[in-house]
Amino acid sequence: MGYDLIRLNGLQLSAIIGVLDREQLTEQPLVIDAELRLDLSPAGRSDDLRDTVSYAAVADLIEGIVSTEKFALIETLAETLTAAIIRSDKRIEAAAVTVHKPRAPLTQTFDDVSVTVHRTRSEVPDSPALDRPRPAVSGVYEGELVEDQGGSASTAESPLTAEEGVTVTTPTARLGHYDRTSLAELGHEDASATGHFRDPDLPAAFPVRSVLALGSNLGDSSATLASAVQALEEAEDVVVVKVSPLARTKPVGGPEQQRDFLNQVVEIETRLSPHGLLDLAQRIEAEHNRVREERHGPRTLDVDIVTFASANIDSPRLQVPHPSAAERAFVLLPWSWMDPVALLSGRPVRELAQEAEDFDDVVRLET
Ligand SMILES: Nc1ncnc2c1ncn2[C@@H]1O[C@H](COP(=O)(O)OP(=O)(O)OP(=O)(O)O)[C@@H](O)[C@H]1O
Ligand SMILES: Nc1nc2c(c(=O)[nH]1)N=C(CO)CN2
């Protein structure tokens, strides 16, 4: 294993980032350093850009994510960028990203605050099909984004161990002194500790995970759910990552004497905007003869968006996390069977399920 590195240092961007409400309204400067570990000897011999990873493409990838996504924590941004860089080209064995936040809201005088995330390929979760960055390169770099290089892309079989991970040697960019605003002035008490508000019409700059809850208690529910999952698998810009076992559940709310429901939870990865995903969910409901008659009434198919990455959304059409999901064992239990360590608004889904009133009314069906 070589020690070759590509380094991109001091990339100056601005972003919406921070846990304070004020920080979610205005952009602030960020400085980003990235290191990519890959074998540079093919390019060293050929003098051909196609034999390496273009640092310009890396800069574009970082800029695309920073300029379109909102984060609360610089840790999350660094993690997201590191994973996106590793996924962008199979030859990249490991990457490290440092996010500097020189105008962090501290009351003290300081030069810089930063986090560094180091990840090897084996530590980055698979992104089944949406793992290519958008080909957003322009001008002289057109066509330079390296497409799957076939034979030369071999690093997936030789993942680094954590101990071998790259070390960032980047000196902190000399950032000088910054404007500081006291936490009190910024209204610290309003800071939102979990998640961030997200523009529901903004498509994701990189694939994000979303959890969907499906339910049916009219018609052939088992066939309907299978067909809904298939429709998700076939949808553009969506990859189904995990599907829960089926649950037979007693109706919660709604008219008396409804049939039991079949419920299922699906985790997807998508580049759709939250509203785009809601459109897709409603299209799939409509294709399965969903007619909206009675609130909580019987339905051939219900597709709810439970989470969309860690976003909070509150638009006239869409609330995320789904406002009732945290109290519904018919959602929480199948979700916890599918993903035993899942969290919802910072709480273990398994624990929330145990507290839900309908906990005893959910039966796991063997598939
Ligand atoms: N997270 C969400 N997922 C799906 N729909 C949502 C969500 N948040 C808000 N909605 C809105 O809720 C409206 C009503 O949805 P629906 O008819 O499926 O409700 P319901 O199934 O009777 O009740 P519930 O929403 O409690 O499951 C939809 O038209 C949609 O715009
Ligand atoms: N058991 C069960 N109860 C419900 C369900 C559901 O999917 N399963 N959906 C509802 C409204 O979406 C209301 N009640």
TrEMBL record:
The protein's Enzyme Commission number: 4.1.2.25, 2.7.6.3
SUPFAM superfamilies: 6-hydroxymethyl-7,8-dihydropterin pyrophosphokinase, HPPK (SSF55083), Tetrahydrobiopterin biosynthesis enzymes-like (SSF55620)
Signal peptide: none
GO BP: any one term: tetrahydrofolate biosynthetic process
Pathway given in the UniProt record: Cofactor biosynthesis; tetrahydrofolate biosynthesis; 2-amino-4-hydroxy-6-hydroxymethyl-7,8-dihydropteridine diphosphate from 7,8-dihydroneopterin triphosphate: step 4/4; Cofactor biosynthesis; tetrahydrofolate biosynthesis; 2-amino-4-hydroxy-6-hydroxymethyl-7,8-dihydropteridine diphosphate from 7,8-dihydroneopterin triphosphate: step 3/4
A matching Pfam family: HPPK
Catalytically driven reaction(s): 6-hydroxymethyl-7,8-dihydropterin + ATP = (7,8-dihydropterin-6-yl)methyl diphosphate + AMP + H(+); 7,8-dihydroneopterin = 6-hydroxymethyl-7,8-dihydropterin + glycolaldehyde
Keyword Membrane: no
Top-level taxon: Bacteria
Assigned keywords, A-Z: ATP-binding, Folate biosynthesis, Kinase, Lyase, Nucleotide-binding, Transferase
Residue stretches making up the 7,8-dihydro-6-hydroxymethylpterin-pyrophosphokinase domain: 295-306
SMART domains: FolB
Family per record: Belongs to the DHNA family.
Function: Catalyzes the conversion of 7,8-dihydroneopterin to 6-hydroxymethyl-7,8-dihydropterin.
Designated name of the protein: Bifunctional folate synthesis protein
Record lineage: Bacteria, Bacillati, Actinomycetota, Actinomycetes, Micrococcales
